[in-house]
Amino acid sequence: MLGLKSLPLLAFLLVTVCAQKKNIRYMPFGDSITEIVCWRGLVWTNLQTDGYTNVSFVGSGTNQNPAGCPTRTYDKHNEGHSGFLAIDIANKKQLVGWLQANPADVITMHLGTNDIVQKSDKTADILTAFTTLVGVMRASNPVMKIIVAQIIPCTVGSYTSQINALNAAIPAWAAGLNTTESPIWVVDQNTGMSSTDLRDGVHPNTSGDQKMAAKWYPALINALKIIEASATTTLSKKEIGFIS
Ligand SMILES: *[C@@H]1O[C@H](CO)[C@@H](O)[C@H](O)[C@H]1NC(C)=O
Ligand SMILES: *[C@@H]1O[C@H](CO)[C@@H](O)[C@H](O)[C@H]1NC(C)=O
Ligand SMILES: *[C@@H]1O[C@H](CO)[C@@H](O)[C@H](O)[C@H]1NC(C)=O
């Protein structure tokens, strides 16, 4: 028969089991370059191949791939919103509700293209919006792991200098907001991406999707490993708590 003294141990075991079963939640966040693209499917496939079947993609969107995507069956949840500006998402506080509905442990953000193309927003104003968005992420989850893109080129129109200016400013901006518990990693999605990687001058085609997935993937794996390491630390702290 189980004595009362066994109850704390049982409680600990239940906590452990529940914690292990909880999937890591990844939110792909951005505009159409996150929503109507094929790279999310490629990232998901890479995760399955590497045994990361415990990662759930989260977000309100479940859009199908555009025609011709190599991967059809994957976790399509994402928070990519075609045509959206970083400045609007920040000012309208839209990410607040999105993260309330779908909390995340790790997030990738590719934003700024629409700010530049639609409104010619200045680098400083886009970065102010990014700062607001990082604040929203951390208010939702104080240990949010944040991966921010230096954005891909746009080869229609004449936006290269503005995109380059934003991309050049992103590393120092990110370093200024970096914390140990909620790190920001910058991923250069611009270098190596050319007009032949874009189906319409804006969105990646097959080769562009492969390049984007290959850039996101190591940063995502790095974040997943850090999330797992901190989960283990938290559990051993709980265990010590029960013993003392
Ligand atoms: C998730 O899967 C990876 C890869 O198989 C593994 O290393 C990790 O321990 C798993 N994490 C959890 C919390 O189950
Ligand atoms: C933020 O800190 C992490 C370590 O916690 C580091 O890997 C990363 O490069 C830093 N990010 C920036 C933009 O400096
Ligand atoms: C990508 O699109 C560009 C421009 O439409 C085209 O030149 C290139 O062949 C395409 N590449 C692939 C792999 O689809």
UniProtKB/TrEMBL annotation:
Key word Signal present: yes
Domain SGNH hydrolase-type esterase: 29-210
Gene Ontology terms for molecular function: phosphatidylcholine lysophospholipase activity
Coiled-coil regions listed: none
UniProt entry keywords in alphabetical sequence: Signal
Organism domain of life: Eukaryota
Signal peptide range: 1-19
InterPro entries for this protein: Ester_Hydrolysis_Enzymes, SGNH_hydro, SGNH_hydro_sf
One Pfam family recorded for the sequence: Lipase_GDSL_2
Protein name stated in the entry: Carbohydrate esterase family 3 protein
Natural source organism: Hyaloscypha variabilis (strain UAMH 11265 / GT02V1 / F) (Meliniomyces variabilis)
Classification of source organism: Eukaryota, Fungi, Dikarya, Ascomycota, Pezizomycotina
